[in-house]
Amino acid sequence: MNVDLNLPWLARLVVGLLLMVASRGSAAKPPNILLIVSEDNGPELGCYGTPYVKTPVLDGLAERGVRFENAYVPQAGCSQSRAALLTGLYPHQNGQIGLATWKFRMYQAETPNLVRRLKQAGYRTGILGKLHVNPETAFPFDVKKIPSANFSRANLDNYAKEAATFFQAAEAPFFLSVNYPDAHRPLIAMTGGLPENPLVADDVKPLAYFGLDTPQLRVETANYYNCLSRLDSLIGDLLATLQELGKADDTLVIYLGDHGADLLRGKRTSYEGGVKIPMIVHWPGETKPGHVVRELVTTLDLMPTLLTVAGADPVENLPGWSLRPLLKGKSPVWRRYLFTEYHTHSAHNYYPQRTVRGTRYKLVQNLLPGQENPGYNFTLQRFFPELPEVIDTAPARVRDSYRRMKTPAAFELYDLHQDPYEFNDLVSDPRYKVTLDTLKKELARWRKETRDPLLDSASLQRLKSEMEACQVNGKPDKSLLHLTYPDYFFAKP
After folding, report:
1. I want to staple 363 with a disulfide (CB 3.0 to 4.6 A). Which of 244, 253, 262, 439 is the partner?
2. Residue 459 scores a pLDDT above 80
3. Within a 13 Å sphere around the CA of 197, how many CA atoms are in the beta-carbon half?
């Protein structure tokens, strides 16, 4: 600290104090980062306007922080979504295009990721719950606890207990990823006394994007909401622990879902029910309380945001944008179009798609047009075997939407303002030709810029053949699945 000794003593004192404050401010410790991820749920929370579910903890977090109205994952699958979040790359860029449990993996373990960069910046890193990305060794967490998916919901109080131990372990800033099992299947109505007052079928109506209403769908919907209420209580325990240990004021909290519900037209699809998620961010002193962000955002935006917040080395050429100005309530120039994709989940449901949406219209491109989508029968036969007859007697626009889902054409076009649940395909309506052409160009541009390997029809068919090769009597056998796509997706001719 250099102070001009020719100044009067009082002036020197004031200048010295100001320099001390400035020095401390510039060297301020970066915030702790608490990333909370739930399973298989879209924005069906109280703060997003769902009337049946009770989620007071997350509603309160939204009141104190920022709620994102239009947040998306790049692909509606567990491994694919989590790998994208942790690398800041689309699945077709990082290689995790299907489930880790079905041998899909990132192309390279050396791909830069959030965990490694934060460790290099001096953060302690930890994960509670599943990682579900291959190879796991690519993510060198300092602490790993509760490694199973825990779909049985055993010992749910352990999440807050293990978090408390981690919070207290050292004074260095921390990054902790807490991954809860709700609302993954099985949709358990009540366990461990949670929720205290579970909903039953007569209390609810099915999610609007089903377009159908049956007793089974009401039961499934009620139990889905029960999972979310239980999740809310567990997050309440976690945040209370953070507060009790004196860490809350120094912690950036992010809550999000990994993709939409495992129900009709949700998970494993490119529809809004699959790729649109809840996302809430609270950073004391930084976020604008109660602010609602309506810009189009993606979980790919979290990596550049968090690296900036942490003072970590940036990763070049990431597709995401920093969310910091949006967190402060500012209105920066923002993206006009947002992109998602689908490849497969397990070997049951390979059916690649690409999508682009603007502020109003959304285009879906089906890369195997005219061929039956195996994901359609996979979902119905596994969970809803009685629904085909119900669909056949549904209103025409609903019935047509399921038929279109079963055997799609090359493109589907939707007006999300007038038709938020994507029942009315506008692709053949001449009034929307300009919109259709514009979105096609934007989607083609994005695919080229991000080096989409499925632009090569040979790669598209080769991957399909590898899926089909493991089928035995119409069912895939994991032991027979031999995936070589990391070797040929970007092989030079």
Report:
1. 439
2. yes
3. 5
Distance CA 91, CA 81 (A): 8
Backbone φ and ψ for 231, nearest 5 degrees, come out as -55, -45
Q: What is the pLDDT of residue 27?
A: 53
Beta bridge partners of 466: none
In a 10 Å sphere around its CB, with 0-12 CB exposed, 13-18 middle and 19+ buried, how is residue 10 labelled?
exposed
State pLDDT tens for residues 78-125.
999 999 999 999 999 999 999 999 999 999 999 999 999 999 999 999
The pLDDT value given to residue 22: 41
Cα separation, 346 vs 102, whole angstroms:
6
Can you read off the two tokens belonging to residue 359? Answer: 């502020």
Closest CA to 257 of 86, 434, 394, 76: 76
Taking the model in full, what pTM does it have?
0.94
> What average pLDDT score do residues 380-399 get?
94
Q: Judge contact between 356 and 362, C-beta under 8 A.
A: yes
- The residue written with tokens 């007071």 in the block is 56
Structure tokens at 77: 């699958």
**3-state SS, residue 240:** helix
What is the structure's pLDDT at 4?
Answer: 45
Q: What share of the chain is helix, strand, coil (3-state, %, to 5)?
A: 40, 15, 45
Give the up-direction half-sphere exposure of residue 299: CA atoms within 13 A in the CB hemisphere. Answer: 32
CB 183 within 8 A of CB 40: yes
E-assigned strand segments in 378-468: 411-415
